[in-house]
Amino acid sequence: MPINPERLDRFMNQVFMDLGATLHATLIVIGDKLGLYRALAEGGPQTPSELAKRTQTAERYIREWLAAQAASGYAQYDAASGRYSLDEEQAFALADESSPAFVPGGFQLALAASRAQEKLLDAFRTGQGVGWHDHHPDLFSGTERFFRPSYAAHLVAEWIPSLHGVEEKLRAGARVADVGCGLGASTRLLAKAYPRSTFCGFDYHPTSIARAQEMARQEGVDDRIRFAVARAQDYPGQDYDLVAFFDCLHDMGDPVGAGSHVLKTLATDGSWMIVEPFAHDRVEQNFNPIGRMMFSASTQVCTPASLSQEVGLALGAQAGEARIREVVIASGFTHFRRATETPVNLVFEARP
Length: 352
What we know:
By secondary structure, this protein is α/β, with parallel strands linked by helices. Helix content is 51%, strand content 16%.
């Protein structure tokens, strides 16, 4: 078939955009870890020399870094003064870790995932999995930093109120299990919002649990949170008023087994909250920027994690509501509904 020059030009333009974005991701993580974005936001327009002095870094590297930021649309440049700056929106997304739009954690996550390339090459050839614990440590902290801003913006304000009677129980004093809690961002947010309730955070990854305990101490909520190493299929405890799975059900090898265990540990009138990445049910409906990000992450992290466990159902990060419903009903639950959603998450409620 003959090459269509116009289509080739469009595709190559996309290729160079993606290649530039891939290379730029490293610079975003460097800027985050060195505090360059924060210094640029706090100090206003600065020359490379001024920013280097403020951050105690080498001017020649900062000069090149700033040019890359401006070329990528991550900073502003004033040619007359030779100074770089962040506009309000850039600062909101790059320099404020409390912002719901804070994004550097996502790039930290993505770069960490790429470090497992050799393991993934073998996995592609053999069909075997790559466990969450087999990844670079930046994946664990990057994931927490990437998801936490959205949880902080929506969990207490929107997601909990969307569940039947759960907010009232939490305010009065409820027993909560946060399963697959990772570094415990969701657990800590709930503990701060509902001081009369008690929380148990469970994850199979000991390093994450140790870090979660430390962060809970630092934030002063360790009096009402207990973290423990446990799998979703057999975590301890009974009569939980709420069991929550945040962005982790699709990572599990045996999500039906996990759901069956949730049913056994819930109180009679308890609820299972499942937060999953936003996805439509048909694969082609997810060919968009969110789907692109999630399919790519799923190929490198989520699907290999599931395949590394027993059963290895490998739902993937774009499972969609219909597939999650199948899992929940197969687990023994009789009530399932979409409680609410955001552009990046679906929130489901299941009840016995």
